[in-house]
Amino acid sequence: MIMAGAEAIIESLKKEDVEVVFGYPGGAVLTLYDALYKANYNHVLTKHEQGAVHAADGYARATGKVGVCIVTSGPGATNLVTGIATAYMDSIPLVAITGQVAVSLIGRDSFQEADICGITTPVTKHNYLVKKVEELPRIMKEAFYIARTGRPGPVVIDIAKDVFAATLDYQYPETVRLRGYHPLFEGEPKAINQVIEEMKVAKKPLIFIGGGVNLADSAQVLRDLVNHTGFPVITTLMGLGSLPSDHPLNFGMVGMHGTYAANMATTECDLLLGIGVRFDDRVTGLINDFVSKAKVVHFDIDPAEINKNVLAEIRVVGDLRWSLPSLHQSTVSAKFDWKGQVELWVEKILKWQKEKPMTYEQNSEEIMPQSVILKVNELTKGEAIIVTDVGQHQMWIAQYFSFKEPRSLLTSGGLGTMGYGLPAALGAQTGCPHKNVFLFVGDGGIMMNCQELATAANYNLPVKILIFNNQVLGMVAQWQRMFYGGRYSHSRLKGHTDFVKLAEAMGVTGMRISKPSELEEILKAVIAVPGPVVVDIPIPETENVLPMVPPGARLDQMVMGGG
Amino acid sequence: MLHTLAVLVENHPGVLMRVVGLFARRAYNIDSLSVCQTENPSISRMTIVVSGDDSIIEQVSKQLYKLVVVHKVTDLTNEPIIDRELALVRVRVNAESRLEVLHTVNVFRGRVVDMGRSNITVEITGDGQKIDAFVRTMRPYGLLELVRTGTIAVMRSDG
After folding, report:
1. Is A115 exposed, middle or buried (0-12, 13-18, 19+ CB in 10 A)?
2. Is the ipTM of this complex over 0.95?
3. Do B68 and A307 count as a contact with CB atoms less than 8 A apart?
4. What CA–CA distance (Å, rounded) separates A376 from A438?
5. What's the topology of domain A369-538?
6. Based on C-alpha coordinates, what's the Rg of chain A?
7. Do the Cβ atoms of A533 and A510 come closer than 8 Å?
8. pLDDT at A264
9. Among the four A189, A277, A352, B50, which has the fewest Cβ within 10 Å?
10. CA A458, A460, A462, A467: dihedral to nearest 10 degrees?
11. CATH code of the region A2-169
């Protein structure tokens, strides 16, 4: 069928089941936006390109689909970089379509020209510069295929302005033929047998789950595996939700702000089954002493993750959709008394958990951030999508919220992007209109993309935005308090911003909780509002996130705290 | 330790940037790099000599495979291979040293490709060690310019 490049893009988006795109128009994409207009395509206009890409990311994390954003050339494209890098670090499938100047102008430092392929190469799974309209269908097909298969990730398609108007005989390819891209699904069955043998002789095995389990939608089979074997479980930040937080064998997050039980279990275990994890430095603590008593088994889809940070005795390379069912089946057919084998070990971890549970000090004057999280958890019965920004509140969420379902925590884990939360929450709400979406954010992070409050109002996206307002950049200040002699270099926020008024100015309901006694009542009122709400919640300035493994320390050298 | 990698890649603009950028951002050291189209014009072959222990080479190879433009990575280090490098060497000569230099060039099976009043230019091929040795021998005469291609390598046929 003969059509213009811009129409071909829209046809391709339809073929890929893209229900909504997030974007911001501009010179180079005018023709594409004209086609979106004519097709009446579902488009969410953010207030900043960074908002569009984080929204597409939040949409992708919440729904499991590929998130799509469209922006113009030059500054439009460069404004995506933080969002693309955020998605790349957490393996989130995105397709970012950027306009480029016309073919004849490329390389001449033309108006609004930027080499976005060059700029994004280190933070994309792949990228394309499209200069010929005939290449569009193949490249669209490949981009979505690359983004969603294997280890997912962001793909950029940079399209020269004249390509949108040029015509082609459109035919969308049925299949993808890429000589250099063959994502592995099924790995070596032999490796699974080796794992079973190690599991049989282990006295203190530990299942360690990461974001891969969420990404591979493998929570159910993981739960089956845990229930069948009775093996204890610890998780990374990105792994939260794949096993319910209140599961008796879930000992919570490991690492810098991990639970005492999780960090002690990791230190003491003799077999670590790492599943969809990448042994980030925030998890391992001092890497040379990480699981020094254990054999490591590493399940991952990306061969490059194996032996990158931690040496694995047994490697199970392949999609968790293959390896986890296979492992579960093998544990069943082994007819082995798994539970009996780990009884003493689980008791030991339970003792650690009882000895030093997560606690914090309460008083009647101040609203403790942990108490807000617990209250939201109680009021929503844990059945909400929780989005965070980055910093102290993010860690408190990881420590205190009781997650029930996979994909219920959306957070920038790898890149740690402040400003991620608000637009990501809007994207999640767009993808899941019937779910309650709560954003927890600091008074620092909210200001990084607060323009998107207007987007929330414009589209009436009923996200509940809880601002933990401590008048400081909390995590920065915590490090300054603990490691820089209390010199609060530029971490104190001046505090003249009235978040209630800010919200109202943008068309969002604003509320404030002033004292602990109001917490429940106001939160209930917030939930009852049908549209978006900003809640300003003053919290104490000097509250620390604890436990904490100081940088350069072993996991068992935690600084404990609480009451 | 030096490893020689043969990397088959798409013959497209920007592919070199992707490969070199990967080395730079993961802090791998490229000792030499040579690249040109192969018998199949849609594919280029890069011969990359990289220094590092086995675990680094394992990572280099896996990270290269993650690039969509990379088809195949072969570590030739422990394989029977033929490896060659070409160098153009300009050496200072005078009336006394000229014959001596020419004699040495012959010993190394180099070829004189240009000759001026005060210098000669020699083309020499061989593995890296031979080139090193030649360069070392020429240095006392006055090494004016040295251009090396970097190693290229193929595996020996098994039959």
Report:
1. middle
2. no
3. no
4. 9
5. Rossmann fold (3.40.50)
6. 24
7. yes
8. 97
9. A189
10. 20
11. 3.40.50.970
CB-based contact, B9 to chain A, within 8 Å:
yes
**Ranges for all domains in chain A classified under CATH 3.40.50.970:** 2-169, 369-538
Q: Is the dihedral of CA A162, A165, A166, A169 positive or negative?
A: positive
A303–B62: do the CB atoms touch at under 8 Å?
yes
Strand pairing category for A2-4 and A167-169: antiparallel
Q: How far apart are CA A55 and CA A61, in angstroms?
A: 10
The length of chain A in residues reads: 563
Query: Which pLDDT tens digit goes with each residue over A29-43?
Result: 999 999 999 999 999
Closest alpha carbon to A456 in A420, A491, A405, A507: A507
Query: Is A161 assigned a catalytic role?
Result: yes
**Residue B136, both tokens:** 């070392």
For the full predicted model, state whether its pTM sits above 0.90.
Answer: yes
pLDDT, tens only, A173-190 = 999 999 999 998 999 999
From A548, A551, A318, B74, select the one nearest A559 (Cα to Cα). Answer: A548
Which amino acid makes up residue A242? Answer: S
Cβ atoms within 10 Å, residue A207: 24
Angle between helix axes A519-528 and A369-380 (nearest 10 degrees) is 50
Assigned fold of A189-355: Rossmann fold (3.40.50)
Which residue among A89, A475, A548, A558 is the active-site one? A475
